[in-house]
Amino acid sequence: MSGETLTTLYVQLTITMSDTINSNLNPAEALRMLSEKIKQENFLISRLKQEISNVIVGQNYMIDRLLIALLADGHILLEGVPGLAKTLAIKSLSEAISVDFSRIQFTPDLLPADVTGTLMYSQKTESFTVRKGPVFSNFVLADEINRAPAKVQSALLEAMQERQITIGDETYQLPSPFLVMATMNPIEQEGTYPLPEAQVDRFMLKVFLDYPTKEEERLIIRSNVRSEGLSKINKILSPEDIIRSRELVRQVYLDEKIEQYIVDIVYATRTPTNYGLGFLEPMISFGCSPRASINLALAAKAYAFLQGRAFVIPEDVRAIAPDVMRHRMGLTYEAEAEKISATDVVAKIVGKVEVP
Question: Fewer beta carbons under 10 A from the terminal one: N or C of the chain?
Fold first, then answer.
């Protein structure tokens, strides 16, 4: 984005900022105060990221997306081969914030009650007591979620959406902050149950992980074989700090032109011909749902927050669009035959839709 465009956006948002923050303040002063708050919180988040990076070599992309999902109050789905520090990342994050963490290894014989919990009968008291499942944690790792049957997947995804669990006649709220990081192994298909499109849609982000570079892998070896082992994670933030940062992320200004830009990107997956992308029509079987628009806006706000800005610019939307949209559209057999992925489709759309 050019400097002139940024100046224009700054003027536009200062005019209407009073509606976003405090109508009693001068718009420019309100923006300045919000920017100062974001810089202070962003410093803490940067320390959190640095603490995690002391243990995890490379994978900065994964860490950034994990923080975006956390700050935007969403969930994240990771796809990558084993050994890419997925479990270590979420475990390290939970230790740095000092919240409860649980890991659920999804297998074909898993039952919904193994995830959510169940009623246990006590002969001694002749009454039922609630035994809560591992989903009652702040951070939940759903390892290889596609290995569990549909009933188990649905039980977890319902908890993700509703943030509550019903056991017997009672409904229990899940703790806050609450984050689910699910993983899928792309190299094995036997004994797996692919997630239905409507359920995958519940994840704010889907991230593909790649192998580390040679230099990163050398550092990984060094950090894992030394006598003192991996570095100890120190507590950097508290759950209250994360909740406060989430509130600030919601206050990040989203201009009407950026809103329209998000809508155009999402609509281009439904009616590509209207955006000069007619060649994509045979490639897309169904476009992104309204959740894509909502999550793209929230994720863009979180991305801007991580950059230390109080407002969203088009580059924020473009940076996060592939992770928000790739799992929310369906591709035809023709696209698969031509080896065109959903990421390729999003890239073509983002490259074509007019930037405000």
Answer: N
Residue type, 275: Y
Handedness of CA 321, 92, 222, 183 (dihedral sign): negative
Pairing of strands 139-143, 127-132: unpaired
* Percent residues over pLDDT 70 in the chain: 90
Tens of pLDDT, residues 53-72? 888 887 889 999 999 999 99
Q: How many helical (H) and strand (E) elements, i.e. helices and strands, does the chain have? A: 14, 11
CA distance 219 to 312: 35
What are the backbone angles phi and psi of residue 125, rounded to the nearest 5°?
-100, -10
Decide if domain 1-53+252-356 falls under CATH 1.10.8.80: yes
The amino acid occupying position 216 is: E
- What's the pLDDT tens digit per position in 25-51? 666 777 778 888 888 888 888 899 888
Among positive and negative, which fits the CA dihedral 70, 72, 73, 75?
negative
